[in-house]
Amino acid sequence: VLIPTNPTTHLEDSLSEKMALLARPARRMAGVLARSKHTLPDLPYDYNALEPAISAEIMQIHHTKHHQTYVNLLNVAEEKLAEAIAKNDVNGQIALQSSLKFNGGGHINHSIFWTNLAPPKNGGGEEPTGELAKAINATFGSFDKFREKFSAATVGVQGSGWGWLGYNSTTKRLEIAAMPNQDPLQPLTGLVPLLGIDVWEHAYYLQYKNVRADYVKSIWSVVNWKNVAERYAAAAR
Hints:
- The chain has helices spanning about 10-20, 25-35, 55-85, 90-95, 95-115, 130-140, 145-155, 185-190, 205-210, 210-220, 225-235, and strands at about 160-170, 175-180, 190-200.
- It is mostly helical.
- α2 (about 25-35) packs antiparallel against α3.
């Protein structure tokens, strides 16, 4: 499965469609949930392409083990949800919401994360330009000040979670947010995700041990600001 420029568009649309249909007749909803399964997206670069910032071993395990597990369990949860809806089992539907949020969030978050990164030879680490750079400067004062605030929020996540740069479509401004576990940014805050940094230990421990700050400092060298800019342009339309 090849990743398009914005790989989460179809994923988010699919999940949103399924949630929107919850109020419709059970038989139709069960059919929508059962018609397709989520799959693990391919990476747009080799596992070793982000070295030395992120090792090939971490990338391979993170992608093929952790992300794949979220995909697998999301499919299982959706199958069970379809069964519960078909049976008009409201208790069963409610019981599945935690699994849907956790595994669905894990799938959405990681699908964004992979494209938010790029090898230096492909522009990874180059600072943002154009309208995104203007928005960052207007909101945070400068790119350096933004990076400092974003890093502090991300390193400061308690336990496991993510640091995010999001777009507030109401205020038309950028915002930094820290989310616990695999909580997806947009469904829970309304912010459109532009840049996400995974600070679960599986994202860095084999290389950085317990020094999360060093990992966050290094990952700036492979941030794909072209991808972030495309996401910003789409969100700000």
